[in-house]
Design brief:
single chain, about 140 residues, alpha/beta, Rossmann fold, 7 helices, 4 strands
Length: about 140
Amino acid sequence: MVGRSDQVVDRLIQATKEDVVAIDGVGPKIAEAIVEYFADDANRPVIERLRTAGLRFEQEQAAPAHDGPLSGKTFVLTGRLDRSSRSEIESRIKRLGGVVTSSVTKKTSYLVAGEEPGSKLEKAKQLGVPILDEDELEALTRDD
């Protein structure tokens, strides 16, 4: 019998690129790589060997949401940020109730763009996602 945790990986094995890219934080390149990996019949025995060895594939539970001024907002960071480290900015956003993901989607509330932002900036523009620089993020996350 397949347990609940195994159902997660079974759904992933059967997923299309569109299914995988719909997962928060997964972009098109990663989605394509995942789908290609599981489409290769040579890789499926690896999953079965891991299951037999006792590895449990479990869905991560979402962290409880914190109430704060950024509750319900999703942020993506891109480019070089000068005044704070990426981990400091992520911590500040989370402390104020926001969520930080790694890829821009239509659900993204804000893209925080530093120097040399790359393709995430273009995707945000295409999707109409508001773009903040460090000063605008600082104003939005000020905890006074």
